[in-house]
């Protein structure tokens, strides 16, 4: 049982780290944007940064919180993309931070049996581990979109890794 607990702790620790990294990057982007451009769409086939943040909150809640805790699925996915105002930078960031913190808490507290149990979310069947992997990769995917749109808007490097030597070789 000790090995199972260690494996669970290591998995949750790494999932939480990756979520914190995505959150850190989204914060950096928001800090470099004016309020006016947060709801701007590059074109009609894409989403604004505001929509992407609301979408992330919905997805993290659906997969990482409600599903793992057997709560009613209250998500209105279409609304995440239909909203075009009403949240400023601070409100969006607070909503995302609260959602991420709640999900990380759920990940930490969920029993191993729930990590292994299969469940259906959005018509897909995953284990609890699969749901957590989905949350992490989905957050990362949209963080990349937010970063790209921010780079396009500002025409400059975002400084995600300023002061860190990324050329260090593996040991």
Automatic annotation (TrEMBL):
Q: Pfam families from the entry? A: DUF1572 (PF07609)
Task: State the superkingdom.
Answer: Bacteria
**Protein's recorded name:** DUF1572 domain-containing protein
């Amino acid at each position: 049982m000790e090995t199972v607990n260690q494996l669970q702790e290591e998995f949750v620790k790494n999932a939480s780290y990756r979520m914190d990294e995505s959150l850190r990057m989204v914060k950096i982007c928001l800090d470099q944007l004016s309020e006016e451009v947060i709801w701007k769409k590059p074109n009609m086939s894409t989403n604004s940064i505001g929509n992407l943040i609301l979408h992330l909150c919905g997805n993290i809640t659906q997969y990482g919180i409600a599903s793992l805790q057997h709560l009613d699925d209250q998500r209105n996915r279409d609304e995440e993309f239909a909203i075009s105002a009403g949240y400023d930078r601070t409100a969006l960031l607070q909503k995302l931070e609260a959602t991420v913190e709640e999900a990380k808490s759920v990940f930490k507290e969920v029993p191993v049996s729930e990590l292994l149990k299969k469940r259906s979310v959005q018509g897909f069947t995953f284990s609890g581990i699969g749901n957590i992997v989905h949350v992490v990769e989905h957050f990362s995917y949209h963080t990349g979109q937010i970063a790209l749109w921010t780079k396009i808007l500002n025409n400059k490097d975002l400084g995600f890794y300023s002061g860190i030597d990324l050329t260090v070789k593996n040991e």
